[in-house]
TrEMBL record:
<feature type="domain" description="RNA polymerase sigma-70 region 2">
    <location>
        <begin position="12"/>
        <end position="81"/>
    </location>
</feature>
<dbReference type="InterPro" id="IPR036388">
    <property type="entry name" value="WH-like_DNA-bd_sf"/>
</dbReference>
<feature type="domain" description="RNA polymerase sigma factor 70 region 4 type 2">
    <location>
        <begin position="106"/>
        <end position="157"/>
    </location>
</feature>
<keyword id="KW-0238">DNA-binding</keyword>
<dbReference type="InterPro" id="IPR013324">
    <property type="entry name" value="RNA_pol_sigma_r3/r4-like"/>
</dbReference>
<dbReference type="GO" id="GO:0003677">
    <property type="term" value="F:DNA binding"/>
</dbReference>
<dbReference type="GO" id="GO:0006352">
    <property type="term" value="P:DNA-templated transcription initiation"/>
</dbReference>
<dbReference type="Pfam" id="PF04542">
    <property type="entry name" value="Sigma70_r2"/>
</dbReference>
<dbReference type="GO" id="GO:0016987">
    <property type="term" value="F:sigma factor activity"/>
</dbReference>
<dbReference type="InterPro" id="IPR013249">
    <property type="entry name" value="RNA_pol_sigma70_r4_t2"/>
</dbReference>
<protein>
    <submittedName>
        <fullName>RNA polymerase sigma-70 factor, ECF subfamily</fullName>
    </submittedName>
</protein>
<dbReference type="Pfam" id="PF08281">
    <property type="entry name" value="Sigma70_r4_2"/>
</dbReference>
<keyword id="KW-0731">Sigma factor</keyword>
<dbReference type="InterPro" id="IPR014284">
    <property type="entry name" value="RNA_pol_sigma-70_dom"/>
</dbReference>
<keyword id="KW-0804">Transcription</keyword>
<keyword id="KW-0805">Transcription regulation</keyword>
<dbReference type="InterPro" id="IPR007627">
    <property type="entry name" value="RNA_pol_sigma70_r2"/>
</dbReference>
Length: 168
């Protein structure tokens, strides 16, 4: 007498459910999660006409494979990795400004060693963002003098930084 789908599903569970459950617990260490995996495995067997047509004794390897794939899928899922969606992206972490602070202190110490004329031109041009013409107008000196002081001032600044071990 042929078995109906409900009877076959009960027979599948009776024949393979405990074995599949132990296998999943062995893989995951989670008894509650193993119940869910076994239930999903049986649901997939019930949805598969080929499996439901077979004798329950010949489907264990198929069920073990399905259960193993479900465990792998669960391990790869975002829910398993405890990822949650949020409405807004989190703020970016601010970097540590300690290195920049030390570099600025070294440059400041090196600038102090320059002559007042060279220092004024470099500060206006590089820290003030002024063009050569603007620096010349602000300091009341010709543009050629600004270019010359920038050139020699940067050279002196480089030497001062080299003495402090900052540059090559």
């Amino acid at each position: 007498m042929p078995l109906d789908d409900d009877s076959r599903l009960v027979a599948l569970y009776d024949a393979h459910g405990p074995s599949v459950w132990r296998y999943v617990v062995h893989l995951t260490g989670d008894a509650a999660g193993a119940d869910d995996i076994v239930q999903e495995t049986l649901l997939r067997a019930w949805r598969s006409p080929r499996i439901m047509a077979q004798e329950p004794a010949s489907t264990r390897s198929w069920m073990i494979t399905v259960a193993r794939n479900l465990v792998i899928d669960e391990a790869r899922s975002a829910r398993r990795r405890h990822e949650i969606g949020v409405a807004e992206t989190p703020e970016r972490a601010a970097g540590d400004a300690t290195d920049a602070l030390f570099e600025s202190l070294l440059v400041e110490e090196a600038l102090v060693t320059l002559s007042l004329e060279h220092r004024a031109v470099i500060v206006h041009a590089y820290y003030g963002g002024c063009s050569v013409a603007e620096v010349a107008r602000r300091l009341g000196i010709p543009e050629g003098t600004v270019k010359s002081r920038l050139h020699y001032g940067l050279r002196a600044l480089r030497l001062a930084l080299q003495e402090k071990g900052v540059t090559r």
